[in-house]
Amino acid sequence: MKKTIKYILVLLVAGSFFNSCETTDLDLRTSPNDLAADQADPNLLLNSIQFAYAANMVVFNDRGAELTRIDNMSGRDYFANYPGATFNAVWSRVYSSAVTGVGSGVSVGMLTNINNLETINENSDINYNFHVGVSKAMYAHQLLLLVDYLGSATLSQAGNPVEFPAPMMDDGATVYAGALAMLSEAEALLSGDAPDLGATDFFYGGDAASWIKAINSIRLKAYVTTGDAAGFNSVIAGNNFISDSADDFQFQFGARELQPDTRHHDYASDYTPSGANVYYSNWLMETMLESDDPRIRYYFYRQVDGTPGALDVNGDPVDASEEDLACSLVVPPQHYVDGGFTYCSVDSGYWGRSHGNDEGTPPDGFLRTASGVYPAAGRFDDDSFGTVGLGLGGGGAGIEPIILASDIDFWRADMAASDAEKATFFESAMVKSIAKVQSFASLDANADKSFEPSAADVTTYIDGVIADFNAATGDDKENIFAEQYFISMFGSGAEAFNYYRKTGFPTTLTPNWELNPGAFPRSFLLPQNEVVTNPNLTQKTSLTEQVFWDTNPASPAFPPAN
């Protein structure tokens, strides 16, 4: 990843558009979108497109992670938990539904700004191919994810309000094909060293070659989701995709605390004067704790050494507490007992919540487990059991992972032709994931690094997982792979939702707190704002509509963990 000081400078101008998991705020004094298409500044248009894209990736990652237990989901009923407003802001940022106001996004969507960029490029003697190519790559990725999460999207009638004031939705397969064609357009525009002309590229610092690797990696994402082995292998044969962590596709946050706030959204939520505000997933923390995963001290920072109702770091029981953790006094429901799942409390101070826990918020801001040094740039867990607070750890200068080199190796393992080939890429994915996570320790200058796992510890862990994988068969084999894939996606998660619907693994995920939470979502409701204003759209009545590539049995029988 190419990083320059100008990233931070533009971030300071851009504003605090990541103060929550779903919002963005651009505080530009003169909006480029208020100008006529041929008068707008192409650099500012590109900035706006990048901000909209990054903000949307936060939402896709968060929703995918919640449903797959990488993050905590609060709410016992799936349908009630994900209403029609869930993707309102995402839809507005992609298209042009005039989202305005603090924290609501950008005033004009990506597509309108891309159309304006194309108009400028066509009518100018200056070559703006870089701007258009980068923008189309991001827009194509958004179209793929809209299909993955909603089942369909607007493509053929989008961006033409005069002719199509109420655009129709295109089916998922058509949108996927259109997005792949758009990636080819983007690659053509970026080929031949397209000049960045001073544009601020928050991802690759104006390096068109790196963007082409990202484009090919987005293609791989599409092919692995749909199971297109021929398309996948064709891209692999070209050997021009993200294969090294130096080329990872990620958004870099800053450490500025005051307005504009440029910090990672989880850091901004957790490192406050009143303590942490994010609850992390009991399933993920317990899975990592039980296997002695070397990434656990980087992912999570424990503020206490024991959770009520569990064992502390010394193996001693911690008293239950109605005030701090009400569920620690509750007898687990039978479906948790039968499955042997942890209902409330994880050992060794990992204080989070289980899937569907909808209890209120007790005074536990300085008790619950907080964001660690990866990817939010919080504190590294060195058994200090201190508290969170402004400026501690890495100050929030973390990342939003989008497509990492480790993801690509997991995809190659998923598409492998044999178990031996799968094991090879599986091992490589783990090596890259752990190495990247460990590199973030340097962000917390005050941490005791003697608590970092050694190279030998890491090797022993990876060798053990691969040995277990090679020895396992059937569902056990698939669960080992899927658990590691999900663990590696901490901080992202958009593709976890896809993998879970495609394969049904891992089957080891904890169930919802509620015995009958409704069918597991196979797609989300359409954005309600668009449904209300577009007479050609009708809202879904359930979350069970399957996207075109999801050919598994209908909910609730699938996925089996639900």
Characterization of this structure:
With 562 residues, the protein is mainly α. Helix content is 42%, strand content 3%. The protein is built from 19 helices and six strands. The chain has helices at 5-14, 42-67, 78-81, 88-94, 110-123, 129-150, 172-190, 208-226, 229-238, 265-270, 282-290, 296-299, 334-339, 405-414, 419-438, 455-471, 474-488, 494-503, 528-533, and strands spanning 152-153, 170-171, 249-252, 300-301, 370-371, 399-403. 53% of the residues are buried.
Write the layout of secondary structure elements.
Elements: H1 5-14, H2 42-67, H3 78-81, H4 88-94, H5 110-123, H6 129-150, E1 152-153, E2 170-171, H7 172-190, H8 208-226, H9 229-238, E3 249-252, H10 265-270, H11 282-290, H12 296-299, E4 300-301, H13 334-339, E5 370-371, E6 399-403, H14 405-414, H15 419-438, H16 455-471, H17 474-488, H18 494-503, H19 528-533
Antiparallel strand pairs: 1-2, 3-6, 4-5
Helix pairs in contact: 2-4, 2-5, 2-6, 2-18, 5-6, 6-7, 6-8, 7-8, 8-9, 14-15, 15-16, 16-17
